[in-house]
């Protein structure tokens, strides 16, 4: 086996490292390699297999019992009878029957990166062939995995004409990216003007009298244009909330509380982060006030509000 | 309500986390082919196709109706896409039904799907526009506060959500298409799972599924096989941000139910409906919707759940199929409710069949509990 020769070869430098006077622990490398390699005659069956490989095809041989042996043999291993001499093209795709992951390939291995040795039954074959599967990751390997040969460009008529098998294509990655230039509408721009100054701007519908925060140009209930602008305080009441325990890179650190906060004087709650209090001490009815980031850090964005924190007042009735 | 309309074919894929063996086109074809087979029809027998799914960002396929037209045999036929967020499966069935009721077509194929494994729903629902605060909470984070408010208002004990989580998963064990099939599911098992969005625990949440569902809808003269007759259809919507909007018991849901019951001649849903397939993606939505849909008085829905009335052997089984809590290919989830209602009154629900079911409700909701779609189907011609 080539791996034995390699193992011996890699220890060849050992002898020089042995200190004098310690003969019993002497180690010496030794290489046993027939110059130029053994020459083997293939016989008609293996020869046909290798010739077809050189042409980029995989063939098996039929037994008298009708089975197709891949790789082919000169005899039926079950009965000892000679095979029929009828060759059939198989594959090139096949199915992994069993596999073993090689996480640290050795120099004589067909691939330099981790791979699997697998028993692959090619389509149309009745026996399995041992070959390497370049699957990238052991988690990609499984019994039943469909694979296909990756051929070498220059083939010589050797089993290594197939560099390895690779899984069939079952998935593609489809990057989707759309770039926008987002401009706030008139209403949102007006609201953000206020947020930049540290105040909440809302509006009162002239028809139903409801106060909306953020500021908007029409009433979602009445459908009429809104013209009256009102400024509401940055204090309010938590009407309800969730404690979020699922981490997300774009979200605050968990656990965080997302709450509906009804600002004093507003008729519609806004969703905001609650902080400055342990998550499990947040209550429905709790009175809170916006905590604004320092003036020098403010922009025209809701990120001006760090969060809402309890005021310490008694809870409001809901 | 227009001309008579019947469900004559239902097809579903098995619902699972990842359907890696099929493309989106292959997935919808699988459900559609099963629906055609159930109806004893072929692609050529279909006059028009209506397709529904959740927002395009879920799979990153813009205008999937264009991509899927020939996969669904719609070449040379009318094809349209419906889009009402989570309720879309229900709305898709109703748009298809309206084409039959309006006398436009005799046979309409309705299909809905989601292949959630292609991306991540929370990502797709939380695009974080500029100028806003980054509060990525997903659907669970959105609905958890409304559940908390329901618990406060009704005074329901904490274990009610657990009861629903167990009941629906027990039903799923009888449904070969269900995604979550958890042998030995128990209250203890549910209560030992972590709070994802308090007060919602992991096992009180719907799974993330790949799957598709399809139905063949037919005019009276084109009926083949066993029909489920459409007795009433209704859709309602309301703005998500409106002062005074009741997010626990939305007016849109009440109005939608009243409309569909009026058409079907239902005055007491608890007594007159035999089985209901209702969109319950988080366990607490069962008691909430029991009230919203008039099966119980306000504040009393949890008592119905607690009494076992909504179990498979109760007097008004809810989600005999295992419901959204057991299978959730989002865009298809509403259509599955409608299809399961039809299977029940056709007597074809298999192991989760409710004996003698003659009238069934199919329900879906979506967005911030702001889109509603419902139908009543029955075994008797209206």
Automatic annotation (TrEMBL), chain A:
<feature type="domain" description="ChsH2 C-terminal OB-fold">
    <location>
        <begin position="229"/>
        <end position="293"/>
    </location>
</feature>
<feature type="domain" description="ChsH2 C-terminal OB-fold">
    <location>
        <begin position="89"/>
        <end position="152"/>
    </location>
</feature>
<dbReference type="InterPro" id="IPR052513">
    <property type="entry name" value="Thioester_dehydratase-like"/>
</dbReference>
<protein>
    <recommendedName>
        <fullName>DNA-binding protein</fullName>
    </recommendedName>
</protein>
<dbReference type="Pfam" id="PF01796">
    <property type="entry name" value="OB_ChsH2_C"/>
</dbReference>
<dbReference type="InterPro" id="IPR012340">
    <property type="entry name" value="NA-bd_OB-fold"/>
</dbReference>
<dbReference type="InterPro" id="IPR002878">
    <property type="entry name" value="ChsH2_C"/>
</dbReference>
<dbReference type="InterPro" id="IPR022002">
    <property type="entry name" value="ChsH2_Znr"/>
</dbReference>
<feature type="domain" description="ChsH2 rubredoxin-like zinc ribbon">
    <location>
        <begin position="193"/>
        <end position="225"/>
    </location>
</feature>
<dbReference type="Pfam" id="PF12172">
    <property type="entry name" value="zf-ChsH2"/>
</dbReference>
Automatic annotation (TrEMBL), chain B:
<keyword id="KW-0808">Transferase</keyword>
<dbReference type="InterPro" id="IPR002155">
    <property type="entry name" value="Thiolase"/>
</dbReference>
<dbReference type="InterPro" id="IPR055140">
    <property type="entry name" value="Thiolase_C_2"/>
</dbReference>
<dbReference type="Pfam" id="PF22691">
    <property type="entry name" value="Thiolase_C_1"/>
</dbReference>
<dbReference type="GO" id="GO:0003985">
    <property type="term" value="F:acetyl-CoA C-acetyltransferase activity"/>
</dbReference>
<dbReference type="InterPro" id="IPR016039">
    <property type="entry name" value="Thiolase-like"/>
</dbReference>
<protein>
    <submittedName>
        <fullName>Acetyl-CoA C-acetyltransferase</fullName>
        <ecNumber>2.3.1.9</ecNumber>
    </submittedName>
</protein>
<keyword id="KW-0012">Acyltransferase</keyword>
<feature type="domain" description="Thiolase C-terminal">
    <location>
        <begin position="250"/>
        <end position="369"/>
    </location>
</feature>
């Amino acid at each position: 086996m080539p791996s034995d020769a390699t193992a011996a070869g890699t220890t060849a430098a050992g002898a020089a490292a042995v200190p004098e006077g310690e003969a019993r622990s002497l180690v010496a490398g030794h290489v046993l390699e027939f110059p130029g390699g053994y020459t083997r005659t293939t016989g008609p069956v293996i020869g046909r297999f290798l010739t077809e490989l050189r042409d980029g095809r995989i063939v098996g041989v039929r037994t008298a019992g009708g089975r197709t042996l891949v790789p082919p043999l000169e005899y039926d291993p079950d009965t000892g009878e000679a095979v029929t001499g009828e060759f059939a093209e198989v594959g090139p795709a096949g199915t992994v029957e069993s596999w073993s992951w090689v996480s640290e390939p050795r120099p004589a291995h067909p691939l330099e990166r981790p791979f699997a040795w697998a028993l692959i039954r090619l389509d149309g074959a009745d026996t399995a062939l041992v070959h390497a599967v370049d699957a990238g990751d052991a988690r990609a390997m499984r019994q039943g995995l469909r694979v296909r040969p990756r051929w070498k460009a220059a083939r010589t008529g050797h089993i290594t004409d197939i560099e390895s098998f690779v899984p069939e294509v079952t998935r593609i990655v489809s990057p989707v990216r759309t770039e926008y230039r987002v401009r706030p509408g008139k209403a949102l721009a007006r609201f953000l003007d206020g947020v930049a100054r540290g105040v909440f701007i809302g509006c009162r519908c002239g028809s139903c009298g409801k106060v909306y925060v953020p500021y908007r140009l029409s009433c979602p209930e009445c459908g009429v244009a809104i013209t009256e602008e009102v400024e509401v305080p940055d204090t309010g009441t938590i009407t309800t909330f969730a404690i979020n325990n699922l981490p997300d890179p774009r979200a605050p650190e968990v656990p965080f509380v997302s709450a509906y906060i009804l600002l004093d004087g507003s008729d519609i709650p806004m969703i905001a982060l609650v902080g400055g209090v342990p998550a499990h001490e947040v209550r429905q009815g709790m009175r809170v006030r916006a905590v604004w980031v320092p003036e020098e850090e403010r922009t025209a964005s809701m990120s001006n509000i760090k969060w809402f924190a309890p005021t310490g007042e008694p809870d409001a009735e809901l | 309500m227009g001309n008579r309309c019947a469900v004559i074919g239902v097809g579903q894929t098995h619902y699972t986390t990842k359907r890696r063996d099929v493309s989106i086109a292959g997935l919808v074809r699988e459900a559609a082919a099963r629906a055609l087979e159930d109806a004893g029809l072929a692609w050529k027998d279909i006059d028009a196709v209506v397709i529904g799914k959740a927002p395009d960002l879920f799979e990153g396929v813009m205008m999937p109706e264009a991509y899927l037209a020939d996969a669904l045999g719609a070449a040379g036929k009318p094809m349209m896409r419906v889009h009402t967020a989570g309720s879309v499966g229900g709305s898709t069935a109703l748009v298809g039904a309206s084409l039959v009721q309006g006398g436009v077509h005799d046979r309409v194929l309705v299909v809905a799907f989601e292949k959630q494994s292609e991306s991540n729903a929370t990502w797709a629902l939380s695009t974080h526009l500029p100028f806003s605060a980054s509060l990525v909470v997903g659907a669970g984070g959105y609905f958890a506060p409304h559940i908390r408010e329901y618990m406060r208002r009704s005074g329901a004990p904490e274990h009610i959500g657990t009861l629903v989580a167990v009941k629906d998963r027990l039903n799923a064990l009888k449904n070969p298409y269900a995604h979550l099939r958890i042998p030995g599911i128990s209250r203890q098992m549910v209560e030992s799972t972590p709070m994802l969005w308090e007060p919602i625990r992991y096992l009180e949440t719907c799974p993330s599924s790949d799957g598709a569902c399809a139905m063949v809808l037919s005019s009276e003269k084109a009926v083949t096989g066993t029909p489920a007759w459409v007795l009433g259809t209704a859709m309602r919507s309301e703005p998500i941000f409106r002062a005074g909007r009741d997010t626990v018991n939305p007016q849109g849901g009440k109005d939608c139910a009243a409309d569909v019951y009026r058409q079907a001649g239902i005055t007491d849903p608890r007594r007159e409906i035999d089985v209901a397939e209702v969109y319950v993606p988080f366990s607490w939505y069962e008691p909430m919707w029991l009230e919203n849909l008039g099966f119980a008085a306000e504040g009393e829905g949890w008592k119905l759940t607690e009494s076992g009335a909504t179990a498979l052997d109760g007097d008004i089984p809810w989600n005999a199929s295992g419901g959204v809590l057991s299978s959730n290919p989002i865009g298809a989830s509403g259509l599955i409710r409608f299809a399961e209602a039809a299977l029940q009154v056709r007597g074809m629900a298999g192991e989760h069949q409710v004996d003698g079911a003659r009238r069934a409700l199919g329900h879906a909701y979506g967005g911030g509990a702001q889109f509603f779609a419902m139908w009543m189907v029955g075994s008797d011609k209206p």
